[in-house]
Design goal:
Helix content of chain B: under 10%
Structural class of chain B: mainly beta
Strand content of chain A: over 45%
Largest sheet of chain A: 6 strands, mixed
Largest interface: A-B, 26 and 27 residues
Distance between the termini of chain B: 36 Å
Order of helices and strands of chain B: EEEEEEEEEEE
Number of helices of chain A: 0
Shape of chain B: globular
Distance between the termini of chain A: 41 Å
Oligomer: heterodimer
């Protein structure tokens, strides 16, 4: 079974500052993928970034980077230079390489960017 | 490309009524999924279809049925709606069931059962 834990129900950050959203995971799969999705108030799910368990380098996509620490089973999302449009729910998810191979989601973190 | 489309966007049902949520994707993906999202929670898998002609139960399948009509379409049916099925329903698709294929989500259907 897979489990994703996001311990921060809500976070505040000042505009232009960096923020880290925490995610820890648990799985018995040797090979797996970690994902972050953004859900703005309009409700759609927007893919942000992906990290494979065997990737040696941390993933980056523009202002998003994933701080992957395999031994600690953590996959934190770092948003640099926060913008007002970054205010949203953020979900960490994972998929293993066995079984149903659908995404398992955490409960999410609501980020509010303040001017 | 429309990506993943879902109909309807909103629906109100009375307890015991039935309805079908429609989902279609135009990305030629093999795998399709149905999730539900309850307030304050992440998405939970209801059913999925790894390829045309196959369907399997997810984490919360009770009260639902699915049909993979063809490669493009994957419908979710509530035979006798219950208030506990009030939720936002998301359809998603991916190129293949294996890792690391990213999933693309539809806009969601907000369902209220009274």
């Amino acid at each position: 079974a897979q489990k994703i834990t996001q311990t921060q129900p809500g976070m505040f950050v000042q505009e232009k500052e960096a923020v880290t959203l925490d995610c820890t995971y648990d799985t018995s799969d040797q090979s797996y993928g970690l994902f972050w999705y953004k859900q703005p108030s309009s409700g759609e799910m927007i893919f942000l970034i992906y990290q494979g368990s065997y990737d040696e380098q941390n993933a980056t996509e523009g202002r998003y980077s994933l701080n992957f620490q395999k031994a600690r089973k953590s996959a934190n999302l770092v948003i640099s230079a926060s913008q007002l449009g970054d205010s949203a729910m953020y979900f960490c998810a994972m998929r293993g390489n066995t079984g149903r191979r659908a995404l398992t989601f955490g409960s999410g973190t609501r980020l509010q960017v303040q001017p | 490309n429309a990506g993943v489309t879902q109909t309807p966007k909103f629906q109100v049902l009375k307890t015991g009524q039935s309805m079908t949520l429609q989902c279609a994707q135009d990305m030629n993906h093999n795998s399709m999924y149905w999730y539900r999202q309850d307030p304050g929670m992440g998405l939970r898998l209801i059913y999925y279809s790894a390829s045309e002609g196959t369907t399997d139960k997810g984490e919360v399948p009770n009260g639902y049925n699915v049909s993979r009509l063809n490669k493009r379409e994957f419908s979710l049916r509530l035979e006798s709606a219950a208030p506990s099925q009030t939720s936002v329903y998301f359809c998603a698709s991916s190129e293949k069931a294996g890792y690391p294929a990213e999933q693309y989500f539809g806009p969601g259907t907000r369902l209220t059962v009274t």
